[in-house]
From TrEMBL:
Keywords, sorted A to Z: DNA-binding
Domain Helicase XPB/Ssl2 N-terminal: 515-637
Record-linked PROSITE patterns: WYL
Record-given protein name: DNA-binding protein
Keyword flag DNA-binding: yes
GO molecular function, a single term: DNA binding
Pfam name, any one: WYL
Signal peptide from the UniProt entry: none
InterPro entries assigned to the protein according to its UniProt record, in alphabetical order: WYL_dom, XPB/Ssl2_N
UniProt lineage: Bacteria, Bacillati, Actinomycetota, Actinomycetes, Kitasatosporales
Length: 809
């Protein structure tokens, strides 16, 4: 049974019910409904008032599980107040339900803890705002499917019509409408007499009742009702609510339902059972392989944007075209590319550069991230994903104003995303290691835990968040084959990721310091390359394919890129010979020598730009080529051509014609370019946008409870009026006392170790009332223990407006 009432008087208000709780009860309320704590209420009356506001009650209802919500819905259609047996009858029905009977005390306890229900078991009261939200009405049908009571449906009916109904059902006439309604209600709630009345009903009339019994309880009738409807209406089994609408009274529906408020009570959550089972080692290995691929994908994306990425849209975010290009470059679908972009943005590795022509680029944090061990880099990404409110699955949809949502743009934060991700992983963690569950089973469990009365849109978003969480966890390597990995479990228990790093590190391949050169101008990396080797090879060659072994291809363009970065042909030969386990193939050596021989033969500078070459025949060949027409070239000297194009455009144009020019500085030196030269300024990762205030920690809860208790003591303590008060107040507020009276009272309190009640105005002019226990009075100040603030404070005597002794208990 729920909690029994002691011998104390029953609470008359929610504030009195809260006042009867212990400190742990108040802390439990604030923990379950953290929005009540911002700002900290001054006393329990203010806490009760805030707990009854519409916004707070809606938030609390949306966080109830299905059975607790069904219990609140049953209380909303029960008499107010309702004894516990009446609530049990509504939930379990006339025949009873053992599972409901076992679960109901827990549901009532949850509602009590969250201050949605108050009062003893003999007088359970649903807070007024919750009753207004859950009670049936034509505009807002009840989830129970019940309609108005007989009293509500007959409120606008003429007294004569009510008396006609009494005669039709065989009840004696009464002298007033109130007793008539009471008599009709008594008939409809009497199981025996109702069975006898319904035995007289035509079969078609019973069919009408069957269509309305589980809701909606309203039906339309024509100007001339059909005989079955007329039979029911004449006997009050259907009551008119408008000229063309009738309603099934709540009492009649409950009789037809055998007393149950809900068609299917759900006292227990749907069980999440394993659908597939694998050896834990297989799951961990699969997840680790995917984690390695995730790191490679993240590095590949950021490396492609080393010289600056796509521009930022004026409204924020990345254009659809640039998202498609990114997906093509990564060889992944667009939703997966959006996931990686959002994850890197949320981790702080990618951000807008903040320049005039704003574009995306890696941040300085990217370089520091690259220096971390692989397992630690993964933990950084996975920890960000678990806590982020960014929701890449929404990309391509529309916001409330019909605007398309773009990746990296605004309006992609959803406060429920972290909670759903964590809950999905927790449900997987509850299964035996290596076990996977069906997505539909997980969704059914989530729907039971948070029915979300916010409507179909809210329920649909939560379901989509869960589906996205499963897919993203697999992509990131948190799960493998649908089962939670060992390092995924560790990440769930320790968001800092230290335990996950320790479990994942042995499963990832060790970085290697060599490649295998092949005669087809490719190099095979048999594993992840160590950082200096990987950086150097990414400049000298292009990545052709990734996976367990990465394949690099050497091209004239890639070799020229290495020469542009300041490497010489001899250095490239030495680099390959040092890091290859196979001999350097002759075609590769010839390729490097050939590109190096032509590299820098042409020099490009700013005139707008110019080309100079010691071989005037080469310049003549360029001028004769029709492809050079767009460059606006003209000969200034036998070895110099001038161009209208910018130096960068001239370089690109000549390279497209098959030449290998080198950029030149104003002093005539070859310009060396670095592939990783461009970074944004220092950027901080975007903070998650939570769905309401966070759950307070134990320290904050303890301080808040003490402050509320002290404030409540100051507001409710019984006070004695000073006999010499200059202004006796009839409303019970503190009288104003003279300076001499104030001094004498606090001095007496200090001597007797008693508490007094004071009014105080601080230096900013803010007035407050406090209960203090004076310790020392000297120099125009009183040092006292302040019960309101739960600390020792010093008060200036001239700022105390009045003082009163506390009444004896």
């Amino acid at each position: 049974m729920p909690e029994e009432q002691d011998g104390t008087a029953a609470p008359r208000t929610l504030a009195e019910a809260l006042r009867a709780r212990g400190d742990e009860g108040i802390a439990a309320l604030l923990r379950a409904r953290p929005d009540l704590l911002v700002p900290v209420p001054t006393d329990l009356t203010q806490l009760a008032t805030r707990a009854g506001t519409r916004a707070s009650v809606v938030r609390a209802l949306e966080r109830l599980d299905r059975f607790a919500l069904q219990t609140a819905e049953a209380l909303a259609v029960a008499p107010d107040p309702a004894p516990y047996p009446a609530l049990l009858a509504l939930m379990a029905g006339d025949v009873g339900d053992a599972a409901v009977a076992r679960a109901l005390p827990g549901a009532v306890a949850v509602l009590r803890e969250q201050a949605l229900v108050w009062g003893g078991d003999d007088r359970l009261r649903l807070v007024r705002t919750a009753r207004e939200l859950l009670a049936p009405s034509p505009q807002h049908p009840s989830p129970t499917g019940l309609g108005p009571t007989v009293a509500e449906a007959t409120a606008g009916m003429s007294p004569g019509r009510v008396q006609e109904i009494l005669q039709a059902v065989g009840l004696p006439s009464t002298h007033d409408p109130v007793s008539a309604v009471a008599a009709l209600t008594g008939l409809f709630t009497d199981r025996t007499r109702m069975d006898a009345l319904l035995d007289q009903a035509p079969a078609d009339a019973l069919g009408v009742l069957d269509r309305l019994v589980w809701g909606p309880p309203y039906g339309e009738v024509g100007a001339v009702p059909a005989p079955p409807v007329r039979w029911l209406r004449d006997r009050g089994l259907l009551l008119p609510v408008s000229a063309r609408t009738v309603a099934l009274p709540r009492e009649v529906a409950l009789h037809l339902r055998a007393g149950r408020a809900h068609r299917v009570p759900e006292p227990a959550p749907p069980a999440v059972e394993p659908a597939r089972e694998y050896r834990p080692q297989v799951v961990d290995g699969t997840a680790a392989g995917q984690a390695y691929t995730a790191l490679a994908t993240a590095e590949e994306l950021l490396k492609k944007w080393d010289q600056g990425g796509p521009p930022v849209l004026r409204a924020g975010g990345l254009s659809v075209r640039d998202l498609k290009r990114t997906a093509t470059a990564l060889d992944v679908p667009e939703p997966v590319a959006a996931f990686w972009l959002e994850l890197l943005y949320g981790t702080g590795l990618l951000a807008p550069d903040g320049e005039a022509g704003e574009r995306y680029a890696p941040t300085p944090a990217y370089d520091a991230w690259l220096e971390l061990p692989a397992a630690r880099r993964w933990a950084r990404l996975a920890g960000t994903w678990l806590a982020s409110t960014r929701t890449p699955g929404l990309v391509g949809g529309q916001d409330a104003k019909g605007r398309t949502l773009s990746v990296l743009g605004p309006d992609l934060d959803r406060g429920a995303a972290p909670e759903v991700r964590r809950r999905v992983l927790e449900l997987l963690a509850a299964l035996p290691p290596g076990s996977a569950a069906e997505p539909d089973v997980l969704l059914a469990r989530l729907r039971w835990e948070r029915p979300l009365r916010g409507g179909a849109a809210g329920a649909d978003l939560r379901a989509r968040l869960a589906v996205w969480a499963l897919s993203e966890a697999e992509t990131l390597g948190v799960t493998g084959r649908g089962a939670l990995s060992g390092h995924g479990r560790a990440l769930l228990d320790d968001p800092d990721g230290e335990a996950a790093v320790a479990l994942l590190a042995p499963l990832l391949p060790e970085p290697v310091d060599h490649v295998l050169l092949q005669a087809d101008l490719t190099a095979v990396a048999p594993g992840p390359l160590r950082r200096p080797l990987a950086d150097a090879l990414s400049v000298l060659a292009d990545v052709e394919s990734t996976g367990g072994a990465t394949v690099y291809r050497f091209t004239p363009g890639s070799v020229r890129r290495a020469l542009d970065a300041g490497r010489t042909a001899a250095e490239l030969h030495a680099f390959l010979a040092e890091h290859s386990r196979t001999p350097v193939p002759q075609p590769l050596a010839y390729l490097i020598d050939d590109v190096a021989r032509r590299h820098g033969h042409l020099r490009v500078g700013a005139a707008s730009s110019y080309v100079r070459c010691d071989d005037d025949a080469v310049l003549g060949e360029i001028l004769a080529d029709k492809r050079s027409a767009s460059l606006g070239l003209r000969r200034l000297a036998p070895t110099v051509l001038a161009s209208k194009a910018a130096p960068a455009a001239l370089l690109d144009g000549l390279r497209s014609m098959g030449f290998a020019p080198a950029a030149e500085s104003a002093q005539g030196d070859v310009l060396v370019t670095r592939a990783d030269a461009y970074r944004t300024g220092p950027r901080t990762a975007p903070a998650p946008v939570p769905d309401g205030p966070p759950v307070p920690d134990a320290t904050l809860l303890g301080a808040a409870v003490r402050a509320i208790r002290a404030g409540d003591l100051a507001a409710t303590v019984t006070r004695k009026e000073p006999e010499t008060a200059t202004t006796a107040r009839a409303d019970g507020a503190l009288p104003r006392t003279s300076a001499a009276e104030t001094l004498a009272t606090v001095q007496a309190a200090a001597l007797t170790n008693s508490a007094v009640w004071i009014g105080y105005v601080n230096a900013e002019g803010a007035a407050s009332q406090r209960v203090i226990a004076p310790v020392r009075v000297e120099g125009g100040f009183v040092t006292a223990y302040d019960h309101t603030a739960d600390e020792v404070r010093t008060y200036a005597l001239h700022r105390i407006t009045g003082v009163a002794e506390l009444a004896d208990e």
